[in-house]
């Protein structure tokens, strides 16, 4: 029985725990949901709510908020926001593995930002700090997210351009950043990893050289003792 309950935990067969909250870290029913929302006590991803909706809305609604803008201008505006948040997260809290912004319109997903840190302690530090912050005149709500795989949280139909529910889909519609910005932000991480790898290799080679010198000295002392 215990094995069966463990196998269905967080799935649609689970009648106790909310599968939507488990998959995407948000539920359209909120506190009124009939199933449990098990909030993690430690996690790499952090969920932020109530960033300015105008950043993540689709083109027609964005026009309503900020006036007529072209697709290029809208992408530039979004890229600036994404880079600002991504850079601040890394500089203040720690290395970011992945950051995603929802393009949904439903109340439980609009304006949601998910940041996956490399270390769990960095995520905990970010949550504590960000809950005392405001953005664009609105308080930021942040919490540790149960999301472990963003591929499972995303709408596959949306990725193929076939989602019929539009912005009110219950699964994540992630707004992409430009390829140039992606290369810049995530390229820095690869460079850091290569730098760390080279540094570890240098330290390893240095240790090997020290061991070789010690062995030679030991052999020399042994030979000196014989003659």
From TrEMBL:
An example of a Gene Ontology BP annotation on this entry? mRNA splicing, via spliceosome
| Stretches with biased composition (Basic and acidic residues) | 209-227
RRM domain location is 62-147
Any one GO MF term held by the record is: zinc ion binding
- The residue ranges flagged as biased composition, category Basic residues, are 188-208
Q: Per the record, which residues fall in region Disordered?
A: 185-227
- Could you tell me which residue ranges the C3H1-type domain spans? 12-40, 149-176
Q: Where are the zinc fingers (C3H1-type)?
A: 12-40, 149-176
Which CDD domains does the record match to this protein? RRM_U2AF35
Q: Name one Pfam family in it.
A: zf-CCCH
Keywords, comma-separated and alphabetical:
Metal-binding, Repeat, RNA-binding, Zinc, Zinc-finger
Reading the lineage from the top rank, the first entry is Eukaryota
Does the keyword Zinc feature in the UniProt annotation?
yes
Look up the record and report any one GO term of the cellular component aspect.
U2AF complex
This one is known as Uncharacterized protein
Native species of this protein?
Answer: Mola mola (Ocean sunfish)
